[in-house]
Design a protein that fits this description.
With 482 residues, this protein is α+β, with helices and mostly antiparallel strands. The chain contains 15 helices and 24 strands. Its main location: cytoplasm.
């Protein structure tokens, strides 16, 4: 379901009555993934086998050598051929690139010269001689049929990947999709010849049409939109490409916020928390760092009904299902380490890993589960393409700077006392007035005002304190009373 507002568009994907994906698009100009640019090589880094490319964005894009070598160059060399980056690129060179990853942290976007244009039924690759079929299509007979269709409709100098949504689709619809993408590619080539450098020459679809393209199929029961103009545009587009699916589109017209009406807002807020409760009473702790994400599984309130090993297995199985959902929902990418509760039985470990793998197959983003380390930790990776949910909806705390911790009340008490002592010899005032957070004030006063009386004796000044709940832990004020 989709909520369209003036400042942003939000979309939620529901499976089995549970939220599994959540997307936010605030400004389409900020969305880079899928966009194609004519850029200029800013500098070449032979030590890193990479180059920085100016595409007109805030930060230069990063181009690694594997993304710079064209498929045709690989065809005339050995598969292990790896030239120096300076043999491929030179500073100032104009180059056609496509963004494959958004900018993260201090890193600019990552780009590739291997252009691909996604359509409804296939992905068009104008520089590759290849036909592939989505791995999610498991019926061998259907895979063979689609492979043959692909081979029959493409030319020798182009490649296509048949998408999952093409399963059972007639050849004429797939051909129509290919012809549309060929036309797009021709326009991109023409535009690239007559523009200033660097320039954007192709922008990928916005959030709503992209979800329609990638998700709307016979398996989708409803695609609900709460904005009339957006609904009508999508319906018109679907009537052209997949008219049988127009009946799956619904316009939401109630006054209540759509995500509240379908009980989604609460799930979104839960997805921003560190702790995730399981139905059994166990819980997950999800900690994200710049380098990797760590997920810890705990039994929590769940004590089981038979023995410890059975309790551990049930908790880990439930956790495996929930972890797969959380990775999709939060859009967590990169290296992921999972610390399941220790299992003694080898078949139990295999079962939990198998369930995790099966659940991750539901994810449209590519992942790879590497297995258990010697310490019993599960290693896996998930492709990082866009900013994760936390990066979009949250900001780093200006007080703790992302550590999740602030200075304790005891430390703040000592800090206030030291500052007061620097003023104790001033004779122009006879008393202090201290205002701070109530927790800090309680430590400053002490039991039965014991600490406050001690300070007054040491400083030779009267001290009045006031707790202000609107003050942050780090904030306090000292005033001098004459």
């Amino acid at each position: 379901m989709v909520h369209v507002a003036d400042q942003e568009t939000r979309a939620a994907v529901i499976e089995d009555e549970r939220l599994v994906e959540f997307h936010v698009e605030r400004n389409i100009d900020d969305q880079l993934v899928g966009n194609i640019y004519v850029g200029k090589v800013a500098n070449v880094l032979p030590g890193m086998q990479a180059a920085f490319v100016d595409i007109g964005a805030e930060k230069n894009a990063f181009l690694y050598i594997d993304d710079a070598i064209t498929p045709k160059e690989y065809e005339v060399h050995d598969k292990d051929w790896k030239p120096n980056i300076r043999e491929i690129l030179r500073q100032g060179q104009e180059i056609l690139v496509q963004v494959k990853k958004e900018a993260f942290g201090n890193k600019g976007p990552r780009v590739t010269t291997h252009i691909s244009l996604p359509g409804r039924y296939l992905v068009y690759m104008p520089m590759v001689n290849y036909v592939g079929v989505s791995r999610k299509i498991t019926n061998e007979e259907e895979r063979l049929r689609l492979k043959e269709i692909g081979e029959s409709i493409r030319s020798e100098e182009e490649g296509i990947i048949i998408r999952t949504v093409a399963e059972g689709v007639e050849a004429e619809y797939i051909l129509r999709d290919l012809q549309f993408l060929r036309t797009q590619w021709s326009r991109i080539q023409e535009k690239s010849k007559s523009i200033t450098i660097p320039s954007l020459i192709y922008r990928d679809l916005g959030l709503v049409p992209r979800l329609v393209r990638d998700l709307l199929s016979d398996e989708v029961k409803q695609f609900i939109i709460d904005d009339g103009p957006t609904f009508r545009r999508i319906k018109e587009a679907i009537q052209f490409s997949a008219p049988e699916l127009t009946e799956r589109l619904y316009l939401y017209t109630d006054k209540e916020y759509i995500f509240d009406a379908f009980h989604i807002q609460g799930e979104i807020e839960k997805a921003l928390k560190r702790k995730v409760w399981l139905k059994s009473g166990g819980y997950l702790m999800i900690d994200q760092t710049e380098a990797l994400t760590v997920i810890d599984v705990n039994t929590g309130k769940f004590t089981g009904h038979s023995n410890l090993e059975d309790t551990v297995l049930k908790t880990n199985i439930e956790a495996a299902v929930e972890i797969a959902r959380q990775l999709r929902l939060r859009d967590i990418g990169g290296i992921i380490i999972i610390d399941f509760i220790d299992m003694k039985e080898e078949n139990h470990r295999e079962k939990v890993l198998q369930i995790l793998q099966e659940e991750m197959k539901k994810d449209r983003t590519k992942s790879n589960i590497l297995g258990l380390t010697q310490l019993g930790l599960v290693e896996m990776t998930r492709k990082k393409i866009r900013q994760n949910l936390g990066s979009i909806l949250l900001r780093t705390c200006p007080y703790c700077e992302g550590t999740g911790r602030v200075v304790s009340e005891e430390v703040m008490k000592e800090r206030i006392e030291r500052e007061m002592k620097t003023y104790q010899e001033h004779s122009t005032f006879h008393a202090f007035f201290i205002e701070a957070h109530p927790y800090v004030v309680s430590h400053l006063v002490g039991n039965n005002q014991e600490n406050l009386h001690r300070l007054e004796r040491e400083l030779g000044k009267k001290i009045t304190v006031k707790g202000n709940p609107n003050f942050h832990f780090h904030h306090y004020e000292i005033q001098f009373l004459t």
